[in-house]
Amino acid sequence: ALLAAICLIDQMLSLSCEKLYYEKIFIKFYNCLQLIFKSNIQDFIVIEAATETLGHLVKKNHHVLGNECVDFQVSQALEWLQSYGSACYYLPPNKSAEKQEELQKQHYFTIKKRSKKLLRKNSSHSRQLISVLILKELAENTPILFNVHVKYFLNTIWSPLRDENEKVRYAAIY
């Protein structure tokens, strides 16, 4: 039912309506998509359809929704990635081998503690997947508005590229 609603919203974007009604309906569509993104959805097809619909909505109606919508979506997605990114597997290179081993042990135990929390909260992978797909759609559909966030995006995207979840890695690459 949720996938059908998302497809309906996507199809309704191509309809032409009265201008005042047009603006109200697109804001309602945007709010519906926001609810989907903030919920605990695990279905990849629904997540992908919702992010594609957001991309179409913003591309066709960025004058209605405004730059604030794109800025909010990008900053929220980057914030979600940043909060999850602290558990990534990157270790900075050190000169001494002993120091490197000590850091790896500390990092291993930190990851082990976080992974237990992440297993309890399975929504972290879906939230990370949603974030990556939102960023992809906004970069493709509103490149001029997304360009402002490129530097922060490039610093944040490394975490999903090294994620243990295959869907998150795949979404981060494409």
Instruction: Report the biggest beta sheet as strand number plus sense, adding barrel if it closes.
Output: none
The H/E string reads HHHHHHHHHH
Q: Which structural class do the helices and strands define? A: mainly alpha
Radius of gyration: 19 Å
Q: Based on CA inertia axes, which overall geometry fits? A: globular
What number is the mean pLDDT?
77
Low-confidence stretches: 86-95, 107-121
Describe what you observe in this structure:
The protein is mainly α and 174 residues long. The protein is 79% helix and 0% strand. The protein has ten helices and no strands. The longest helix is centred in the middle third of the chain and has 24 residues. The two termini are 27 Å apart.
Question: Key features?
Answer:
174 residues, mainly alpha, globular
